[in-house]
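Figure caption, in words: inputs first, then the predicted bound structure.
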Amino acid sequence: MTDYQRICLVHYHEIGLKGHNRASFEMRLLKNLGALTQDFPVVTIHRIAGRLLVFLREGTDWETAKQVADLMRNVPGVARVSCGFKCARDLDVMSQVAIAALAEAGEFATFKVAARRNHTDFATGSMDMNQIVGAALCEAYPEKQVKMKNPDVVVGVEVVQNASYVYARSLRGVGGLPVGSSGKVVSLLSSGIDSPVATWKLARRGAVCIGVHFSGRPQTSDASEYLVDDIARVLEKTGCIARVYTVPFGDYQREIALTVPPALRVIMYRRLMFKVAEAIARQEGAGALVTGESLGQVASQTLDNIRCTDAAVDLPVFRPLIGTDKLEIIAEAERLGSFEISSQDAPDCCTLFMPRAPETHAKLPVVLEAEAALPLEQWIPELVAAAEIRDYACPAYKPKKRQR
Ligand code: ATP
Ligand code: MG
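Bound structure (magnesium ion present):
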């Protein structure tokens, strides 16, 4: 059935609740979806009564429509995507289109029709529409059952001013808020399992994410940088990551390893990472740092050590995985699509110059005293200047005026 124009209806939950901000949230989501689907035959996207209506080019096939829907359901802010058709306000036509839409709904045993009219200038009421379209479907699909409570498929029929929309396939979206509606964050992105998931959590709450990766280069290869690029490309599909700064960190770790007591090395590496990330955040106008730490997971993730690293910076540090178990994080990484990439081994700065027995209960005055031996005032701008920037497609990102 390609005689009718294909459409997707994009539903959202939370943005509906945001009072006077609602219009700007809707516009943000609309712009994000428009930019992310630009390689697909999407003609235009409209805002209609609490939803977005995505028009696909006439003649678009089902496979392509499915790809568009699958892309959109993973975009933050999207609660549900329904695929169907736009057609005339004619009950015979609507019934035929409903039969076609139901044919594309996938496996199901039970269904019901949920009709509504947004305009009372259409003579038939919603109950009657349910009956008429429902009868046509029962005739076309005699082996399927009508079920009012929790059917497998709900066939949506909506009559608006000049047209009607009929859809059957409906997919749950990732929810959250549109990227760009909650400001910017700088995320410390390793090639491990945790930090991509942590980044995604903030993205889903509407933050534009800027990654900062500390590479062991030149003391190690650049393998971790390629993995981080692959991870960024996964995140890019949802429009949430604007750029990744790669900081060659190996020589500085070497200096730290030569200067401070071995047990304090890891804390020093991490404090320096935070300070560099904070300098980048200021440059980018970002309001917080994000890490993939989870309490007690490794030596640096004890309460004492977290306190010592937080004290290195003024910005808030968000750790969305702090109370999450590894298996839960892995499940989320699989859903996100980053797990396989993160499972590959690459030496990064984490594996470099590790002490045999890292401090697990660092005391801030002791850390500060040891750190005084390091020329941080010189190092931080040096590291920020040495960072290599790679840009990704992020519709909500506006670079600050060039500072460098
Ligand atoms: P991940 O799986 O994300 O690598 P992890 O369990 O290996 O985390 P750590 O190595 O202690 O834990 O790192 C904790 C957090 O510090 C990471 O989640 C990440 O946010 C940040 N981090 C660690 N290494 C790097 C790095 N090389 N570049 C940027 N950030 C890093
Ligand atoms: Mg790691």
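Residues 184-391 form a domain with the Rossmann fold fold (CATH 3.40.50.620).
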